[in-house]
Amino acid sequence: MFKAFLLKYAEIGVKGKNRYVFEDALVKQIELKLEKVEGEFEVSKVSGRIYACAKMPFDYDEVVEALTTVFGIVGICPLVQIEDNGFEDLAEKVIAYLDEVYPKKNFTFKVNARRARKNYPLSSPEINMELGERILNAFEGVKVDVHKPEVMVNVEIREQINIYTMEIKGAGGMPIGTAGKAMLLLSGGIDSPVAGYMIAKRGVVIEAVYFHAPPYTSERAKQKVIDLAKHVAKYSGTIKLNIVNFTEPQLYIYETCPHEELTIIMRRYMMRIAEHFAKQSGCLGLITGESIGQVASQTLQSLNTTNEVCELPVYRPVIAFDKQDIIDIACKIDTYETSILPYEDCCTIFVAKHPVTKPNLNVIRNSEQKLGEKMEELVNSAIETVEVVMCAPQ
Ligand code: ATP
Ligand code: MG
């Protein structure tokens, strides 16, 4: 029965002169999403509202699911659209709608009419009154509740008339492509996919870098990261994943530096390399899944030490989240099950028994000095041999 959707946005509505930029970006993102589902849709922007109208039959559940992954949409309202054949016809159609959508006739309701076309013979309050009365007469068990109705009967009078009562929760956030691009350090863990999702939610295009250490880390560990990127891509759009072979630099650090400093030094090099790729592709920031105090490398002292090597801002959206809060989001975006697959990570293989938790910047810098020119060569070669995988939504 539904052949169209009203797609509501929130924050975009308070934008000023450039509001159209955000609306157009949202329309484009919706179009991209709907291209992937069966059917054909026309997405249009009509006086501050966005509609997606089906031009042929479609799978309702599939379309709703696709729309719930579009950042910028806060509500998805399935619409019944009718021609204006006078008020009597409208009343009949509204009653038929309610009859079908609500088999149990014991709800409270309120009619909320919006007359966008001013030449309609009844005013909005008149429509509310008249229609309310018709509905009360049609169904014995229903009642009006103007404060907290269970069913809000929305009637929008435009060229056509829209009838809707349901609003499915959207993904929120801002449309992808309205806030620049950033480079996500994506590991196989729980936190970084969530961090990428959260930044993408604000409209940022995501690119990613993964450090692997074959043969210490397996092909399956790498595949796991690709799979995670594909999951995040469901929301963010296709992610370009840079896979860096980090084995040589990592072994060299292991041989040359005190073991308790390994993780910190390794993380500093990861940041440097990530920043190299970030700058190369016009990213304006780095993203990590770090959270204060979660592990030794995430104390304020450690974060300060890793942060120091970057010029770009580092965005850490889960910095103050408890693990369980991060897990909740991971479950919601469907990355959790993949993240907990038990494949090794390069950070866990070369880990010291007692890593420093309060690294001293000068001490770390001194240790890095010992790495000398050879480290530069190893880093350059890791950069040159990068493997790029385009991760499209799964
Ligand atoms: P995650 O669950 O995201 O792996 P974590 O709790 O395991 O995080 P760490 O291993 O200390 O924490 O990593 C901190 C952050 O550094 C990660 O969130 C991620 O952004 C980045 N990172 C760690 N390992 C890698 C890797 N192998 N490749 C790319 N980024 C990584
Ligand atoms: Mg990790």
Topology summary:
Elements: E1 4-8, H1 19-35, E2 41-46, E3 49-54, H2 60-67, E4 75-82, H3 87-101, E5 108-115, H4 124-138, E6 143-144, E7 151-157, E8 161-164, E9 168-169, E10 181-185, H5 191-201, E11 205-212, H6 219-236, E12 239-245, H7 247-256, H8 262-280, E13 286-287, H9 300-307, E14 314-315, H10 323-332, H11 336-339, H12 346-349, H13 361-369, H14 372-384, E15 387-391
Parallel strand pairs: 5-6, 5-7, 10-11, 10-13, 11-12, 13-14
Antiparallel strand pairs: 1-3, 1-4, 2-3, 4-8, 4-9, 7-8, 12-15
Helix pairs in contact: 5-6, 7-14, 8-9
This protein binds adenosine-5'-triphosphate and magnesium ion.
Structure commentary:
By secondary structure, the chain is an alpha/beta fold. It folds into two domains: 4-169, VC0802-like (2-Layer Sandwich); 181-391, HUPs (Rossmann fold), CATH 3.40.50. The protein has 14 helices and 15 strands. Strands 1, 2, 3, 4, 5, 6, 7, 8 and 9 form a nine-stranded mixed β-sheet that branches. Strands 14-13-10-11-12-15 form a six-stranded mixed β-sheet. Strand 10, helix 5 and strand 11 (205-212) form a beta-alpha-beta unit. Helix 8 crosses helix 9 (300-307). The chain is elongated. It binds adenosine-5'-triphosphate (ATP) and magnesium ion. Adenosine-5'-triphosphate binds at residues 185-187, 189-192, 209-211, 270, 288-290, 294-295, 297-298, 345-347.
